[in-house]
DUF885 domain-containing protein
Amino acid sequence: MSDTQNPLPRQVADAYVDDLIALDPVTGTFLGVRESSSRLPDYSPDGWDAQARLARDTLARLDEAERRPGAGGDVERRCGRLLRERLTAQLAMHEAGEHLREVGNMHTPGHAVREAFTITPVETEEDWAAIAERLRAVPEAFAGYRASLELGLERKLFAGPRPTATFIGQLTEWADTGEGRGWFEDFAAAGPDALRAELDEAARAATGAVVELRDWLRRVYAPAVEGAPNVVGRERYARSARYFNGTDLDLDEAYAYGWAEFHRILGEMREEAEKILPGAETPWAALAHLDEHGRHIEGVDEVRDWLQGLMDRAIADLDGTHFELAERVRRVESRIAPPGGAAAPYYTSPSEDFSRPGRTWLPTMGLTRFPVYDLVSTWYHEGVPGHHLQLAQWAHVADSLSRYQATVGMVSANVEGWALYAERLMDELGYLGDPEERLGYLDAQMMRAVRVIIDIGMHLGLQIPADSPFHPGERWTPELAQEFFGAHSSRPADFVESELTRYLTMPGQAIGYKLGERAWLLGRERARARHGAAFDLKAWHMAALSQGSLGLDDLVDELSRL
């Protein structure tokens, strides 16, 4: 690396992270920067414009850095490639005003604020003093968010009515968890007695901000967007898909690929279902049978502990055989997600110093009985060898990459593609030999193929193929998409509804799982073909997990070189 007067791409990238944390303390909290714990971002139009200026200035610095001697090596080249692609995609979204209509069930400033509290340090009285200050910042953060939405209304940049109604419902749940107090008050109740009055007052103010935003959305925003389309059309979809996938996709080819995977997986599901319920009319009839008669975990605490054991066993089995894991990467925690969020499980990365470990989160949706078939491959995806091994490994090797590549430079399709590849890897290694667990895995694979079909299909209004078992020849709508999903998934109706709202809110994100998996598999096969009999899967895994994030086209190129 060069001196700070003549920075190379990695130094430019890491300077960007430092400047971004100053503007976005939530990002700082995710990275484990304790100085961020007392602050929240400016979600007003001015705050978003400041982030856009930072991106433009960084791209200008990157132009200069890439012309310097020493910028042509693989490490610098890969970092510069990622930084340019990410910032360009972010600016395209900003210039289109997408930040002025961020309303939905999981990817909004409101969700970012709440989730930040779930990973803020809570070990000491000093930690809780910072939390009290952050709680006092919630009203201003929500007011800035509202100002952005108000500007969106002025510019006729509308969120869809369905995501709006869903978010209003979530805010209602955040405002009253059923005990006569809001989520922030519940969270603050765990604080020390010495700060009780301060925490309670700040938490009540935060709940008041939730109520105020909810009431404004209900009174002003929802009527204003009534009649607006829930789908985004080809131009907006292509821009958003670029942001989530790190490349300009051939959307019609991706739609056809989704259908090809649908038919392939359906054939495998029928074979597996026959082992569970001979003569079952559909694979989902066999899964419904498992809902009643299959193996289950009873109890919320029990399922959390069971998932922890599943990840611990996977680490013990895979370390030294198919991966080579540092001791700090071996630590991962199973958690239960706070209520009032989306229905899908998720993962949060470790802090940069690993003082906060990687964590998987299970939304219970009020349930206390959990079928095993629906958990095993999902936790191979969310935990080990999925998100945890990739994102914790990035944190572990950040010094040899750059801070940017290991953290905020993440491309969604790269990460979700690895996690889906991880599920397939466990199937390849024989960990899903039990018919219940394997049918559950195939059901999860089918969900990802269905996502490609309906996410692209409904936003672009594409025609359903003539060989489809469902409404052949018709054009996709959100209503048809929800019906199709429900007919080809074991998930309950509330999960399906939550997922459809997510796709309407984050167009192009859900397709990255299957398209990302395809990129990982293609990169592996090209590397295997290049090495022949000398191909070492463990070495390839560790090299692949140690190169940081890349968009899908760049990912295939880099994986093939390993």
